[in-house]
């Protein structure tokens, strides 16, 4: 049972991590709580379904097209909807909620409310330490790792990443230093949603695709990001792993309590927050005057 | 003089729509119209309406009146207050005479209250919760206008489950050469599965089957990796399911991906739908579930109904299409009673036995369908290579054989 | 003090205090409309929708007190609504309390929960508080599902008796409660208490430095907000004759946030206006059999469009069009006036108009 927990926790944790790093990035840089983050994840899953199952294009092509189109959509939404109301935090929040609802309803109209399935990119089961893991899950693990590594390289080894980190650190000074803060914010939105879209495309074959699939991951992502500390990338990854393992332990230790895994993970988050209000790795923000 | 004529004419014109309205019998079909359940509600109702109106309509005390359907979106899946608003609207605004439909039990309980307030006959075609019937027994005068046409209530569904299990058990022992097959119970943690789970834990040992564990995911779970890993480790030969949510799809798919030798049987609402095969990406083989409709002769009406439905709507009916039976039953009862007055119809409903498409329809004291072989039991189907194959009750014409992983 | 004298004095006060400002006149008209609705439209369906609107208006207004005035943006406000609904239902069904007492005690239980949550959230700031509060209703749902015999599981509790015998009676219960609760909240917000709340939101450190016990105020606001939301939930349960997990849904919490921001934060009347505009609108859209299924989509688009043009919310925008603030005495005046109604200072700076 121990290896079941270890492996299952790792796989769920990496799925959550993939979703969480994008969300954390956009919050850290642009101070935007993007409630529509998982809605983009859902759109990418539907895009994959439409291209792969209905359109008959190959897996790689469908996946790539889905990611690219959702990223473009996010940038357009940012320009049209978010940027005009950037100054008003509350309005940005509602705007993202409204966007998420619009995506949900549009998808409901086009594809219907039934649960859809997407074929796996890789079929078959691998055996890791005596535990049977579907190969698609291992793919998710690898993709999550690659994305994390890529994000790290982008943030810490490129000039653009420097601009992003500077903007996250202090928006006004970055502006004074000549960085185009708006463009940095927009690019960050693009990268963040691209990460969510990649998550959507990798994860869709493992779960089911339906118009409401964005709600449950949203709660988990928020819990993960809060647990790890808002604005901290490594915090999000660690938070994701913690949540993944807590869920795995709950299900294996308490099979009759499997339905509680969500509630237990959330309680975990609340407890951590009580002890350390800024999350595990978060930075306690000074109130900006 | 001319003015008086005009006023009289205006008066008659105003009365005319009322007179026309007197002509039709308005039946409101209430369901989540944006989802497959509501679509089936409407489809079954349309089929019934078209057939009956083509034959002239319903004969009420000698006069023939046509059926007029009102399509009302209850939106119950997304919002319970929307459902009660819709029910009130159907009754007060649309002036429906009868109401049929419903799906989400929490919403139907609330909708039942509204319909009973207005003393309208409400024929349920989707919610299985026993409380809807228990209300009738507890407070007959208030709730007597409710009748459940489909499905069986949850405890009765459990009885069908064990009847089917009895049939499969023998096959399991013969094929697997095991005296006591191991069964894992995988049931959502919700009220409707409580009675079934308890009955399983009591009955399975009596049927010489060993219960290796009970797993209860949440009704909205979409990942059962952990549960299946544990079930596999426990060496289960069968997974006894009581699932109504998306878990049903994931179970089918992940069991196949893990190449588990266990076979899944029980209640799996998602597996009743046509889209199940595609939703599991073609992997939902051997998943078996209780169901309502197939091209088998449970009653003389089932095969023609299923074929006509498939031809008209290009998909198979789900149990929500029992609105067809509901309207036909209403016609029978109205014609027998000679009136559309709800209070007078109730005793006629209680005494009527009619042949429906799903079974022989008769009501208990709690206005639920009577359970029994020859009455209403439902059927059991198994997915085999992309097709839903009915296999129980084995003696009915059209039934085929249950299969095990590796056989087909 | 003859009745004629009192009546004339009341009219003079009304004319002098209420009718002088368009916003107050509108509020008075709205109160009259709410109270007179059953006389104009006794249709039971309309009254049902109106009663729901009143209940949700109280719910949204309570959220505004918490989020708008103290800046504690609560993403799980449905927790209080659901607590009020479930506790009053349990009291009515299991302990046989009369409906009125059940509603009141349900409100008290909700207040206690609110104080508890407020205490837990004292150290949390900004988004951390929002996301933590999101978790609470979900944790409660998990607990309720774990004890289905007690809570009714996914079906909830049903078979409650409504508070009044007739639909009109029930409507007046909902409308009356809403008016009392909303005006109560507004009185709180408009008083010195509300001033302190503004201070806490804008700069908690400075408020603490000025000697204000911010923790106590923050907890008190959680308690008051939870009380109002709990009573709203209890009224909902008795009107619908049941309380289920749908009273704790995340969608309901989000709805409160949308109403609050759409209507205008830190106003109390803003969210109430939003509910009165949006809820009947979505219900009306849903009644069309052709595009009724698009109601949520249209709702979201409307919200988005309004937000793009009025980012601070609907009521502040409308109020800015209707009224201006006098530069000297800082009191509100109708926008078309040339001179302040109280201190006679000129309200427009256009060169020729000043005399």
Structure description:
- The complex is a heterotrimer of chains A (289), B (408) and C (355).
- With 289 residues, chain A is mostly helical.
- Helix content of chain A is 72%, strand content 3%.
- Chain A has one domain.
- Chain A has a two-stranded antiparallel ribbon.
- The longest helix of chain A has 29 residues, at 2-30.
- Chain A is globular and about 55 Å long.
- The model of chain A has no long low-confidence stretch (mean pLDDT 84).
- Chain B is α/β, with parallel strands linked by helices and 408 residues long.
- Chain B folds into 2 domains: 2-151 and 298-361, Response regulator (Rossmann fold); 155-291 and 378-392, Response regulator (Rossmann fold, 3-Layer(aba) Sandwich), CATH 3.40.50.2300.
- Chain B has a 7-stranded mixed sheet with strand order 9-8-10-11-12-15-16, sandwiched between helices. A 5-stranded parallel sheet of chain B has the order 4-1-5-6-7, with helices on both faces.
- In chain B, β15 and β16 (387-392) form a beta hairpin.
- The termini of chain B are far apart.
- The model of chain C has no long low-confidence stretch (mean pLDDT 89).
- Chain C is globular and about 70 Å long.
- Chain C has a single domain (21-344), classed as ABC transporter involved in vitamin B12 uptake, BtuC, CATH 1.10.3470.
- Chain C has helices spanning 3-18, 22-40, 44-70, 78-94, 99-120, 126-146, 148-151, 167-190, 192-202, 204-209, 214-240, 250-263, 269-286, 295-309, 314-322, and strands at 157-158, 242-243, 323-325, 332-334.
- In chain C, the strands form 2 sheets. Chain C has a two-stranded antiparallel sheet with strand order 1-2. A two-stranded antiparallel ribbon of chain C has the order 3-4.
- Chain C is mainly α.
- The chains are: A mainly alpha (289), B alpha/beta (408), C mainly alpha (355).
- Chains in contact: A-B, A-C, B-C.
- Chains A and C meet through α4, α9 and α11 of A and α6, α12 and α14 of C.
